[in-house]
Design brief:
- The longest helix is centred in the middle third of the chain and has 16 residues.
- This protein is of the alpha/beta class and 333 residues long.
- Helix 3 crosses helix 4 and helix 4 crosses helix 5.
- The protein starts with 17 loop residues before the first strand and ends in a 12-residue tail after the last helix.
- Among the domains are: 158 residues, P-loop containing nucleotide triphosphate hydrolases (Rossmann fold, 3-Layer(aba) Sandwich); 70 residues, Alpha-Beta Plaits (2-Layer Sandwich).
- The protein has a 6-stranded mixed sheet with strand order 6-7-8-3-9-10, sandwiched between helices. It has a 4-stranded antiparallel sheet with strand order 2-1-4-5.
- It is elongated, with a radius of gyration of 24 Å.
- The N terminus and C terminus are likely disordered.
Length: 333
């Protein structure tokens, strides 16, 4: 096999379960993935966000050892993706967006089949099948034919299949896509249990509201470029560095609005507006100054009955971050 591209870099030895250094993929004159530096810690749930053709699938295929990088280096669970792709594949579990059923195969047979593909012994396969069925809340489905399962049941079976060989790292493609509200909650709880059991999870998705609820960090990719990466709060602050608050008052909202404008320095007050008894204020202000503002309002005799900070959602953040991206012809990832 060709020498690892990692020989051009220092060996990637770290505490990260997934690590890339200048990882890229070129198809002729088309760049599917620009040099990518990414670090995902053990037991982290990482959301990889981007539209179709953005480079998500290209990244995942390389990390799974299914696609050779054009340049750069990466390790998954401490294993180099170019020198030992087979070992990488044995340490990961992958769940595609759509589970392809094998007609005439029951759920337990389906899992047993994939357990055999990973060369798990028959007795151990039987035990492991029961374990993943129980873990994913699918025990009652074990004798169902796979093709008869609902979409939500198939999603759970997809996770069970990815877990059959007890991998350290999971790659999940749109795990909550098409699920009803109850099934989405159940999937979030399942992923949290897997995290607590020590799994590292990369979720590829475009359902931004769901990612905000389940992920420790997110990364936005577009046109093969990683635009931003960080906690949900960090990404939101990238879009809205100023803090936006809603203050609900019992009465005299106009006088409270005027009081806020007088208390805050002009450089700290970005905007202020009111609707009936609700006042919205955008400020350049820290936690201590927020406390001082509320204290001053109460001391002046104003009746504050509600206060909350508003957060930009991930969808708004993504649209803002990609506003200046030139959308041309996309690759097929």
């Amino acid at each position: 096999m060709q020498k690892s591209l990692a020989t051009h870099y220092e060996k990637l030895e770290s505490l990260f379960m997934i690590e890339t250094r200048q990882l890229s993929k070129q198809y002729g004159s088309v760049t599917a993935l620009h040099p990518l530096d990414l670090e995902i810690a053990p037991q982290e749930i990482f959301g990889y966000v981007g539209p179709n053709g953005s480079g998500k699938t290209t990244t995942i295929r390389m990390l799974c050892g299914l696609l050779t990088p054009s340049s750069g280096a990466a390790t998954v669970a401490g294993v180099d993706i170019t020198t030992d792709a087979a070992k990488v594949r044995s340490s990961i579990g992958f769940m595609p967006d759509h589970l392809v059923p094998y007609d005439g195969m029951r759920v337990w047979e389906y899992l047993d089949f994939f357990g055999a593909a990973y060369r798990i012994g028959r007795r151990q396969r039987k035990k492991r099948t029961q374990e993943v069925l129980e873990l994913t809340g699918s025990s009652a489905l074990q004798d169902y034919f796979v093709e008869t399962l609902s979409h939500g049941m198939r999603q759970r079976l997809g996770v069970a299949r990815a877990l059959i060989h007890d991998p350290d790292v999971l790659f999940l493609d749109e795990p909550t896509n098409g699920l009803d509200p109850r099934a989405r909650v159940e999937m979030r709880l399942l992923l949290d249990r897997l995290k607590q059991q020590g799994k590292t999870i990369l979720i590829s998705s475009h359902i931004l509201h769901e990612l905000a609820l389940m992920c420790d960090r997110v990364g936005f990719i577009e046109q093969g470029k990683l635009l931003v990466c960080g906690t949900v709060d960090t990404v939101q602050r990238t879009v809205h560095p100023d803090r936006i608050f809603e203050i609900e008052v019992l009465h005299n909202a106009e006088s409270v609005e005027n009081a806020i404008a007088q208390i805050l320095e002009p450089s700290k007050l970005v905007s202020i507006s009111r609707l009936e008894n609700l006042i919205r204020v955008e400020m350049k202000i820290n936690r201590a100054e927020i406390s001082d503002l509320l204290s001053d309002l109460v001391k002046q005799g104003h009746s504050i009955i509600g206060f909350r900070e508003l957060q930009a959602d991930l969808e708004e953040a993504f649209m803002a971050l990609t506003a200046d991206v030139e959308f041309g012809t996309r690759s097929n990832e």
